[in-house]
Specification:
By secondary structure, the chain is of the alpha+beta class. The chain is built from 4 helices and 9 strands, in the order βαβββαβββαββα. Strands 3, 4, 6, 8 and 9 form a 5-stranded antiparallel sheet that branches. It has a 4-stranded mixed sheet with strand order 1-5-7-2, with helices on both faces. Strand 8 and strand 9 form a beta hairpin. The two termini are 31 Å apart.
């Protein structure tokens, strides 16, 4: 399931809902990302998240489908917030269920790595020096590259 929304989410409730959905679930792995109050040495007072409606959801659905094709997982949930957020606000939740922890952990990490590089979101930080767009990080692209399948 994919949700792009302004509203905050209750990670515990979302995890519980997935965990109780099937009695054969043996593992649930989750990741919560939040707004930091410091980036590149500057204090951050807010983060504006924008997306391309329709295209963003399609990209996230594709990432989840890739994870389901690579690992034996039962389900995956991605919730990504948009709008103006403050430090410590939640941005993203990824939850993956499966029979075993290894598959769930790997799929959860894969989804986050691809979300950071392939999903059309744009971030603009508010700092004491004004607003600035957050550039893609080389470390995010490196994290994604480790999932490349050998030729």
């Amino acid at each position: 399931m994919i949700r792009v929304q302004h509203e905050d989410f209750d990670a515990g409730a979302e995890i519980r809902r997935m965990r109780l959905a099937r009695p054969d679930i043996g593992a649930v792995a989750a990741f919560v990302g939040q707004v930091r109050d410091l980036n590149e040495g500057d204090a951050v007072s807010g983060l504006a998240l924008e997306h391309y409606p329709g295209m963003t959801e399609k990209a996230l659905e594709s990432i989840v489908a890739q994870a389901k094709n690579r690992w034996k997982i039962f389900d995956a949930l991605v919730i990504h917030r948009i709008g103006l957020l403050k430090p410590s606000d939640q941005i993203v939740l990824v939850v993956v269920s499966g029979a075993h922890r290894g598959e769930a952990f790997a799929a959860c990490e894969f989804i986050m790595d691809f979300l950071k590089t392939d999903a059309p979101f744009w971030k603009k930080e508010q700092t004491g020096h004004g607003e600035r767009w957050v550039e893609a990080r080389a470390s995010d692209e490196s994290a994604k590259q480790r999932w490349a399948e050998p030729d």
